Amino acid sequence: MALVWLCLCLGLGSLLSSGCGLEFLYHNTAQVEQYLQGISKDYPAFTHLHSIGRSVEGRELWVLILGQHAREHRVGIPEFKYVGNMHGNEVVGRVLLLQLIEHLTRGYLHDLFVTRLLNSTRIHILPSMNPDGFESANRDCLYSQGRFNKNGVDLNRNFPDAFSGDNVPVREKEVVAVMEWIKNETFVLSANLHGGAVVASYAYDNSNGGQELQGDSSITPDNDVFVHLASTYSLSHGNMHKGNSCPDSKDFTNGITNGYRWYPLRGGMQDYNYVWGQCLELTLELSCCKFPPESDLPGLWEANKPALLAYMGQVHLGLKGQVLDSNGIPVQNASVEVLGRLNLCPFRTNRNGEYYRLLLPGNYTIMVTCPGHETLTETVSVPYGPDQFSALTHNFWLRKCVSSTVPGTTTCVMSRPRPTENRSAALKPSSFTALIAFTVHRLLVSLLECPHSTLVSTLVYLYALLF
């Protein structure tokens, strides 16, 4: 019987069987497609397979969704995504994501962490964003053959850039597919898996010399959260936290880096996710060699597995909830802003009135605005959510204005880049000045929208802020 079982395992080659598991091999596009279809068929209760588009050469961009409600979004369930193989010759992420799918599907209802994660999260996995590049790649550590898509374009330079305006004349098919994917989902947290170094890189990747540029780094309003997220991955990794895993690479303190500080890039997916997608994304560099020997893959999986799992759990940081009107009807496109965090594009509620804000434990003042409604400000104490697999649920109830004559902007179609001139540190406003400017701006907007009903509440809010 044992001999028969062994023969069955060997006979399946690189594909999955009920007991053999997925081998540590570089599966081609057809094999990956067959594997994903098999997983979807074997685990229909908590997986859903779909294509978000096609590559230049017509290959499907397959995404497997895992979760208790895999087929549709549910209110209060955050959306998470992993993207691999954006550069076709950086292949470790592609292998690790297939192994992660294997681990999650086999662990559901058997492993407590996996079960709680899938019951509380909707996880999207795109193993290969650039299948055309993968099929043309050479098995070489450094050679760049296969990095670009079929049109010879670097997909990680092809997204809209908040600091450079319309930086490219044509969006590639793979990029358009991912942009539509981001638009159609409410992603909260993401990571993009690369190779060629071992480090967790966080936004921003670009700058035009405005206030985001602090020293040699380009800092987001949510820098504390980004540093925490990058540190979570690095410290959970087998050796990333050591900071100097590759002999020919620079040292990274604690295994993390600001993207711009490492090297500036324009048109990256990481910044696009954050600015326009309301989704915090890391770029994870997972191997010194871009296309390592297959014999290295088991060790790379063991080093990254705890980090991949721990990072997904961080989707439950901070606050979540709905913005509702006085009748309990969800308010779409309401702006949910954290005082002191001036995002280039405000975080807005989706069609269900939902918002998600990744925040570290602490007290935060939240300002909720929507044309035709009174501005609402509340201070909320945020605990650490990942331990409970849930961010703090806090709903906001907006009252309609008696009259409103000022139309509001409901979408952030294009961000407005910062002024291009460099500013000295002495000329940069202090955080207190910026806070006051932000507050005065919001009060003026509120008074214009609701000149009578908002006056008292906004004056009280200003008094509380100053004293």
Automatic annotation (TrEMBL):
Keyword Zinc among record annotations: yes
UniProt cofactor(s): Zn(2+)
Gene Ontology CC entries for this record: extracellular space
MF (Gene Ontology): metallocarboxypeptidase activity; zinc ion binding
Transmembrane segments: none
Keywords tagged on the record: Carboxypeptidase, Glycoprotein, Hydrolase, Metal-binding, Protease, Signal, Zinc
Entries under Gene3D superfamilies matching the protein: Carboxypeptidase-like, regulatory domain, Zn peptidases
Active site per database record: 285
SUPFAM superfamilies: Carboxypeptidase regulatory domain-like, Zn-dependent exopeptidases
InterPro entries to which the protein is assigned, alphabetical: CarboxyPept-like_regulatory, CARBOXYPEPT_ZN_1, Peptidase_M14, Peptidase_M14_domain
UniProt keyword Zinc, yes or no: yes
GO biological process: peptide metabolic process; protein processing
Annotated ranges, domain Peptidase M14: 25-315
Leader sequence residues: 1-21
Pfam families, per database record: CarboxypepD_reg (PF13620), Peptidase_M14 (PF00246)
Family per similarity comment: Belongs to the peptidase M14 family.
Protein name: Peptidase M14 domain-containing protein
Protein species of origin: Electrophorus electricus (Electric eel)
